[in-house]
Amino acid sequence: MATTLSDLSVPIFVQMLTSLSGLLDKAAAFAEAKKVDPKVLLDSRLAPDMFALARQVQLATDFAKGPCSRLVGIDPPKYPDVETSISELKERIAKTISFVTGLDKAVIDAAADKDVTITVAGQPMTFKGKAYLAHMALPNFYFHVTMAYAILRENGLDIGKRDYVGKVPA
Amino acid sequence: MATTLSDLSVPIFVQMLTSLSGLLDKAAAFAEAKKVDPKVLLDSRLAPDMFALARQVQLATDFAKGPCSRLVGIDPPKYPDVETSISELKERIAKTISFVTGLDKAVIDAAADKDVTITVAGQPMTFKGKAYLAHMALPNFYFHVTMAYAILRENGLDIGKRDYVGKVPA
């Protein structure tokens, strides 16, 4: 059996978004145990000009639903960036997982050599579907998931690499 | 043209390790401009029980050479973890890039459905090659590259997402 583009997209997004949702559960429990407002964590960032945790989670979902939509050839669903609580962010993650798993795998697979044009720094850039996934979508997706983990870790949460890698699909 | 496992492994490692090497150049320039010992950056970490920058760089290379070796079916080259300077870490990155680009792509491609057994938390776990790459190797690889970026960013380096994503292969 050959490798397909859907093998290397949807299940990765599902794995890591599920982990991210679990990290948010641990953040909620941490806030409760420490008697701090969960907003303190959601507004936390590693540097003044970096995005805070809530935005990192939104961007992680954007880099799942956006790339999958572009591979399939549909407009990405628009989620207004209005989440202000852990439960709302978890809902956004769940919605994203449900969206990407609902896409037709065969259409994703067929996009391997399709041109995908995106705008980078104001300039249109065209990639083959598989290059777009491998070299733009996944690096950006992983960036925001890892940054969310880093912010929580830097805030003192007792989480480890296993919480990040999560459950590996069989 | 179908998707192959080599499409979704070696060029990703090369892209991101090249970025990482560029981040280390910026770290060296930053240390010089601020008149601080580069060791301060290499020893910097986000939390007391997280790895420092130098170790994150070593682990990023390990999660490139290790997975590629396992897919090909050879023992990963052993690099002693002795780097104490930016130039030594850059050398390790260069050696890793040269190693993974020297592997036979056809052998990597053929590993998509080969069993790969690794030890996770003391237990052997067996995956098909493509699942191992997608669900274990890449999440771990991206974790350490992003963490290196996060440590530098938190130290005040003027770097951005473009430094992280780097040069996308044509």
UniProtKB/TrEMBL annotation, chains A, B:
InterPro entries for this protein: DinB/YfiT-like (IPR034660), DUF1993 (IPR018531)
Looking up Pfam families in the UniProt record yields: DUF1993
Record-given protein name: DUF1993 domain-containing protein
Q: What is the lineage of its organism?
A: Bacteria, Pseudomonadati, Pseudomonadota, Alphaproteobacteria, Hyphomicrobiales
